[in-house]
Amino acid sequence: MKILVSDFDNTFFTNRIDNNVDLVNKFRDEGNLFIIATGRPIYLIKPEIEKHNIKYDYLICNDGAVIFDQGDNIVDKTNIDYQSAIQIYNMIIRSNNVEHVYIDAITDFGDLDASDYNGVLALPYDRDEALKLTEYINKKYPSVQAYMSHRWINVLSVEASKGIAIKFLENANSWDASNIYVVGDNNNDASMLVYNNSFGIEAGNPDYLDRCLYRIKKFEEIFKYIK
Length: 227
Hints:
The protein is α/β, with parallel strands linked by helices. It is 29% helix and 26% strand. The protein folds into two domains: 3-77 and 161-224, 3-Layer(aba) Sandwich (Rossmann fold); 82-157, Gyrase A, domain 2 (2-Layer Sandwich), CATH 3.30.1360. The protein has helices spanning 17-29, 42-51, 82-94, 127-140, 162-173, 206-209; strands at 3-7, 33-37, 58-61, 66-69, 74-77, 98-104, 119-124, 144-148, 153-157, 180-184, 197-201, 214-216.
C-alpha cells in the first residue's frame, strides 16, 4: 500500500483537476490511500471537494493544525492558546493593513469560543508590511508561528505543520514511511520534506523546490514514480 499526500492549491487543484481526480480514484481503487494537506480550513475546501467529487482518506487542514477523516470527524488538532489568539487578532486589526482577519475555530471563521482557537488568518493589502508584522508576532509570541502563504497571513501553533500531521497519521496507522509520497509547491509544504519520497511542482517556490528529491511539471507525473 502506498500513501500519497498532496498539497491542494496549485498542486492538485489546477486547471487539470478533473484528470487529477481520475488518477487519484484509480490509485485508491488499487488499494492505496490519498490525503489532501492544505492551508485551507475545512469549510473552504469542502465545496471544491464536493464539486469535483474528490475521494480522499484523510484531510489535513489549516496547514496541519487539524486532521479530519472521510466523515469529517476530527482525528487530531493542535490549537493556539486563547489569550495569544485574541491579542494577535487585535494586533492584526490595528495594523490597518488587512481586508479580512479571522479566528478559525476548526470549521468556521469568527466563532469566538475560548476552548478552540485553531489559528488566525488575515488577508493583507500590502505584503511587505504583512511580512514585517509576521516577524514581530514570531518574536513576541514564541508559542506560535506566523508566516505568509500565497496571499494570507497565517498564525498557528509552533507544534502544528503538515509534516507533523502526516507523522501523526503514520504512527497512528503503523504505516511504513518509505511508502509515503508527498507533493507540494510552496514553503508551507516544506515540513513534509521529512519524507524521502518528496516532490515539487516545477512552477512553485524555488526555496521549496531546492529541497525536494524530485521536480515534476504536473501532479499527474508523480504516478510515474510510485511503484
